[in-house]
Structure formats: C-alpha cells, structure tokens
Amino acid sequence: MEISGRRVPPKRIGELLVAANVIRQEVLLEALKISKNSQTPVGRVLMTIGELSESDVETALYVQGLIRNSVISADFGVKVINVSVKGRIPLDEAFRRLGWTPPADMEEQSGTFGELGSLLVQSGLIDKSVLEQALWQSQENNLPLGRCLVLNRAISSNLLQSALTAQVLMRDGKITEEQAINGLKSAARKQQTLEQSLVDAGAYRQGQKESVKLGDLLTQAGLVTEGDKISAIEIGLNENQKIGEVLVQSGMIAPGVVDESLRLQEMVSSGQISGLQAADILRQANSRKVGIDVIIEERASRKDEIEKVTGVLELLLQSGALTGENFNRAQSLGRQLNVSIAEVILTKEMVEKRLIQAAYQGQGLVVDGIINNSQCVLAMKMCIKTGQEFHEVLKELPSDTAQVKTPSQEEVGADKKSGWLGNLWSKVTKKD
C-alpha cells in the first residue's frame, strides 16, 4: 500500500494476509463485501469460502495482536504469517526460523485476544467465536472491545466492570490470573462484584477506610455515563493511561474537574466525608459552576440544620411529619452511605422545612414545661393538616387539651383578650 510515495505498514487482518501472499487482493475485496453485508468477521468469511483454514486465521489474528501491541513490527508480522501459513508449520517454529523467540507468557498477554478477551474466554463468560466477532467490530468501528461485547449483549456492563477491575488488580500485583478467573466465574454466578467474590474466596482484602474510585465518583455525580466510564477504563488499560487523562483527552470533562475530583477522593479516603457526600459536592459544584470549596463551606454551615433534625426526630415520627416508610429508607441509606439519618432526611427532602421548624419550636416549649408532649404532637398534626404555622395552630388548640403552667396575675394583665394562649404565643416568639 502506497501513500505519497511512503509505504504504510498493514495492520488489518486482510491487509496482512494479502501482504504475506496468503490470499489475493481480489479475494480480500470480495470477502470484505460479504463481511460488511453479513456483519461477519472477515477471517470467518475467508474460512467459509475455503481460502483459509481455522488455524490460518488464528495465526493471522495472533500476529495482528502482537503488531497492535507493538511487540513486533508489521513487516516482521507479514514474514511470520507467510512462513507459517505458506509453509504449513506451527507459529512458534516460524518465529524461531526467523530468529525470534516469544516470551513464555506472550500468548495470553499480547496475542489474539489480548488480556481482557483472554480473561473473559478463560472464565467461560464468552466463547472464542463471540470474542472474534467483537474484535472485528472493535477494529471496524474504532470502539473498545468491552463496549462492543456489551452492545452485542454478550456480557453485562457489570461483568465488564468486573473484568476490567480484574485487569487492574492483576497489573498491580494484588491478585494472580487464576484468582482473577475464579473471581470472575463467581461474580457471574452470584451476580455480585469481583471484589466481593475475591473477598469471599480469601483472595483479596478490602481496606478498612472508605474509598471511592475516580470513575465511580464522576458517574455518581452525573458528570459521565456508566458506559463512558467503563470505556475510559478499558482505553486507559490498553494505552497505559489514567482514567482521568482519557476522559480529559476525549473532551468528556475539563482538567479542573479531575483535579477537584481527586481532592474529594482524598477527603473520602481520609474519612472527612463519605462517598455520597463527595458525589453530591461534585454534582452541585458542576451544576452551579462553582468550585468545590464553595459547596464544602455551605455544607459546614448546614451542620446546625442536621443537629436540629436529629433533636426532633422522634417528634417528627410521632406527628406523622416523617412517615415510617421514609424513616426506614433514611435509616437504610444512612447505613449504606455512612451518614446520619438526619442528613439523609434533609438531602432527600423527606420533611418540609416548615414542619422541621415547627417541631423545633414545639420541642422547646415542651422542654420549658409550657406544653406537654401530647399537646405538642397534636399541634404538629394540625400544622400538617391545615398548612398553618406552629404559633397559629396553638391558638386553635382545644382548651380541654391544654396542660400549661398557670400564668401569674401579672402575666394575665388587665386585657381580657390576653389569656394562656396570649402568654403561650409570647413564649413562642421568645423561643424564635
């Protein structure tokens, strides 16, 4: 192939086969037409029409993998294919005849399927024919292999995430290939994460401190989709790049977002905030187009609100301002996210702010002995039913339910309109 007088090394399987004099150019063109119309890998088409054997295709695919991973040059790969296929000799022997000996672990690490494909095949999650189809689609459409497998519904996005996590852990030396394969099998069978499967098998130990992955933080904050996150992880593994670098280079997020996300990630690891809080801070900062420091300062001032809700939680339940269903939900979320029930109630807006303020006022009057708890609960229920403020419903409480301190003569005064309700209202205004 010539472009502007310079020879461009072939990398597609058909081009490699033609360059190696294994098939003719016109045969390749015909096979490409069939391949495009039938959505079938070109290698399989060449086998179907009798031009190549399965062994020939596997040889070409293997060499193509070595070229793509820069293990060998395209020119050397063409020579190897020619010697192996035309000479009908094993690929290892062809390499030796040309003076090169592949590393012992080369077959699975840099060969036909690559690390991700090999893990999925050896784990029994997909077979070679499915992988071959996805590899062809990946090359033709310039998409990550994993994305193609998910689009083909060969595996779920959760299983792809587990397989990519296995790659990361293997490269970091935290698990062996055998542990990765067994972990993937268990994750698929039990429908759980790879980490949980590894922990169950005693092959992996999670840290005691909470942590959050950068990709998960960005996804939870709504800045990138789950699919884009997984693709970025896969590209990063293939190109030896961090996920943040991939997302910035692809234009999905700005460099400043990565920097602030890394700060939040460190705050989670140090125990200053939870993963949920980090995602919420990042989401708000992005939507309001402000720095995370602004949101963090606002959250600090919210501490008083959280303490207020905590103090009146029982009263909110007794009055029905907080339903039992929402309380159970808040309790469950609080345990999962390592935050207080009150914070969940505020974040999810489970109770109206006016009712929280009413409960706070009523609680203060109960503490001061001005009204009792039953009367406070009744007043709260009236607030819910009528939509009135707490001081307004106090004036309408039935007199026979009022158990209040007897006002002194001075408090009663000469004004006949001033009774215990008037005195009570003065107490309420003082509490505010």
Globular, elongated, flat, extended or rod-shaped: what is the shape? elongated
The quaternary structure here is single chain
Please work out how many helical segments DSSP would assign: 28
**Radius of gyration from the alpha-carbon trace, in angstroms:** 34 Å
Structural class from helices and strands? mainly alpha
Number of strands: 2
* Beta-strand percent range: under 5%
Protein described:
The protein has 432 residues and is mainly α. It has three domains: 2-112, no CATH class; 214-301, no CATH class; 304-431, no CATH class. The chain has helices at residues 13-19, 25-38, 42-48, 54-68, 74-87, 91-97, 106-110, 114-122, 128-141, 145-151, 157-171, 177-190, 194-200, 214-220, 226-239, 243-249, 255-269, 275-288, 292-301, 303-311, 313-319, 324-337, 341-347, 353-367, 373-386, 390-394, 409-412, 420-431; strands at residues 2-3, 6-7. Strands 1-2 form a two-stranded antiparallel sheet. A hairpin with a 2-residue loop joins strand 1 (2-3) and strand 2 (6-7). Helix 12 (177-190) packs across helix 13 and helix 14 (214-220) packs across helix 18 (275-288). It is elongated. The termini are far apart. The relative contact order is 0.04.
